[in-house]
């Protein structure tokens, strides 16, 4: 199984950024009988091509026309299929290593503009105050409308220590915002950890990279060592994690699930797109040997929100289906499709949607997402809840449908309480996790990359839920031990 995974590097990222890197076209070869060529449509294409070459106001290179035609075919399918020229293909491969030059933004195209899905922690964009949901209008005074997403990303990237000016629209602001940012080498630290209080650990995963499983192992080792070899409970924070390398997601899931437990499976038209991936200690190898066995059973709470996409949803869905963790937060993004990178020529490639993925219990996440066990909204800043400004998969034009129905779009309901909590699902006293509307001003708001139980309302509630889970776990363990000793 692992040999098959090593042969191809899978990437799953929300907002149209993630893919499966494949070595050939067999993964998407249509095994059905080929259809007759659409002669009339091809004739129309040829006629339009000729008219442009002959009558357009300026000469146009054949290469540009063909590239734009290819890109149009792909972008018309769904938000995640696209044509990658040589530079875009190179950028994609570079970004999976966790180090690249730029501003630190996860973006997608929407309504002719570029929308920020999430600023990456500890990057120029996050430090300057760019927020999820912001729309980029101009890049260095060049309007974005009409520009392809690849071109927009290319303009934002550049040599370190050079500047770029972004003009942005933000809901709630009457005038455009202008940010002058200095490009930097973006080194994404995918895993951060902290001991919240004695016995309770916290691990934040910002993006699934090739080394994320190893980084997670080191973070857990550090937490156990800091707490003298044991933990009462653990919080895994996947909020605003747009996804990344699928093997990282399966590896992280494997840390908390028993070997051979199903993590995710995919279904597509081609036989090669039908894959089942299970938990295995092989994903973390020697690095995981020193972890205590309690990692598999320690009470676990997973934090999610609308910025948790794709690989994050795979982990959350697997842990939820196996009843290994309690999910706290809000509905996730809903990126449940697999993209395959197929080489075109010597340097370019196409990114093509080839399959949907499903949780162990057979749930399709596409355009729906993962529902938390306990719903807790984010704290509001000056009366405004950032969650209503987010975009989900179902909001994207031409999004792939969910075969099981139940698609979930971003929806703002006037007068709806800012914090909701269903404590009944714990079947335990709910005094620790009572619903509460939390309103903070900018001075009290959580800063990018900051880990603070005091400022982070969702984290507060996750810790309370974890303490309840720990009590249940301890009670169950005592009961089992007593029953084992009974004559």
From TrEMBL:
Q: Indicate the segments forming the PDZ domain, all copies.
A: 89-157
Q: List the InterPro entries hit by this protein, alphabetically.
A: ClpP/crotonase-like_dom_sf, CtpA/B_N, PDZ, PDZ_sf, Peptidase_S41A, Tail-specific_protease
Q: Name one GO molecular function term.
A: endopeptidase activity
Family annotation (Pfam families): CtpB_N-like (PF22694), PDZ_2 (PF13180), Peptidase_S41 (PF03572)
An example GO CC term for this entry is: outer membrane-bounded periplasmic space
Renumbered to this chain, the signal peptide range is 1-27
Start-end of Basic and acidic residues biased regions? 408-451
Single Gene Ontology BP annotation: proteolysis
Q: Which UniProt keywords apply?
A: Hydrolase, Protease, Serine protease, Signal
Q: Which family does it belong to?
A: Belongs to the peptidase S41A family.
Q: Which NCBIfam families match?
A: prc
The protein depicted here goes by the name: S41 family peptidase
Q: Which organism is it from?
A: Chitinimonas arctica
Organism ancestry: Bacteria, Pseudomonadati, Pseudomonadota, Betaproteobacteria, Neisseriales
């Amino acid at each position: 199984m692992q040999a098959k995974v090593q042969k191809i590097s899978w990437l799953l990222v929300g907002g149209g950024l993630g893919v499966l890197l494949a070595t050939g076209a067999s993964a998407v070869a249509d095994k059905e009988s080929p259809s007759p060529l659409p002669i009339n449509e091809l004739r129309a294409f040829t006629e339009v091509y000729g008219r442009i070459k002959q009558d357009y106001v300026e000469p146009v290179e054949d290469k540009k026309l063909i590239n734009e035609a290819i890109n149009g075919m792909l972008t018309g399918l769904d938000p995640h299929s696209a044509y990658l020229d040589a530079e875009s293909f190179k950028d994609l491969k570079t970004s999976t290593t966790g180090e690249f030059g730029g501003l630190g933004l996860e973006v997608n195209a929407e309504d002719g503009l570029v929308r920020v899905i999430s600023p990456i922690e500890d990057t120029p964009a996050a430090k300057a105050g760019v927020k999820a949901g912001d729309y980029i209008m101009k890049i260095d005074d060049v309007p974005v409308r009409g520009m392809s997403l690849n071109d927009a990303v290319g303009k934002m990237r550049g040599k370190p220590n050079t500047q770029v000016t972004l003009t942005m629209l933000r809901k709630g602001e009457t005038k455009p915002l202008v940010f002058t940012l200095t490009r930097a080498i973006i080194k994404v630290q995918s895993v951060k950890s902290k001991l919240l209080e004695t016995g309770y650990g916290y691990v934040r995963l910002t993006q699934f990279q090739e080394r994320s499983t190893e980084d997670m192992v080191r973070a857990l080792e550090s937490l156990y060592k800091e707490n003298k070899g044991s933990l009462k409970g653990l919080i895994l924070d996947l909020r605003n994690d747009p996804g990344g390398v699928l093997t990282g997601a399966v590896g992280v899931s494997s840390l908390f699930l028993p070997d051979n437990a199903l993590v995710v499976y995919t279904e597509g038209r081609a036989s090669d797109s039908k894959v089942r991936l299970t938990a295995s200690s092989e994903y973390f190898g020697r690095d995981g040997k020193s972890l205590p066995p309690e990692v598999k059973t320690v009470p676990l709470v997973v934090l999610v929100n609308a910025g948790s996409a794709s690989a994050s949803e795979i982990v959350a869905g697997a842990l939820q289906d196996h009843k290994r963790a309690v999910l706290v937060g809000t509905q996730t993004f809903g990126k449940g499709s697999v993209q395959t990178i197929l080489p075109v020529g010597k340097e370019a490639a196409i990114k093509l949607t080839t399959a949907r993925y499903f949780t162990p219990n057979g749930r399709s996440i596409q355009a729906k997402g993962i529902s938390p066990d306990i719903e807790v909204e984010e704290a509001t800043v000056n009366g405004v809840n950032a969650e209503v400004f987010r975009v989900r998969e179902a909001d994207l034009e031409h999004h792939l449908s969910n075969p099981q129905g139940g698609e979930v779009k971003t929806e703002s309901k006037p007068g709806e309480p800012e914090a909701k909590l269903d404590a009944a699902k714990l079947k335990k006293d709910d005094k620790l996790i009572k619903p509460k509307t939390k309103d903070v001003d900018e001075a009290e708001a959580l800063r990018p990359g900051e880990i603070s139980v005091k400022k982070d309302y969702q984290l507060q509630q996750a810790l309370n839920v974890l303490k309840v889970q720990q009590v249940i776990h301890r009670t169950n363990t005592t009961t089992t031990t007593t029953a084992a000793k009974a004559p």
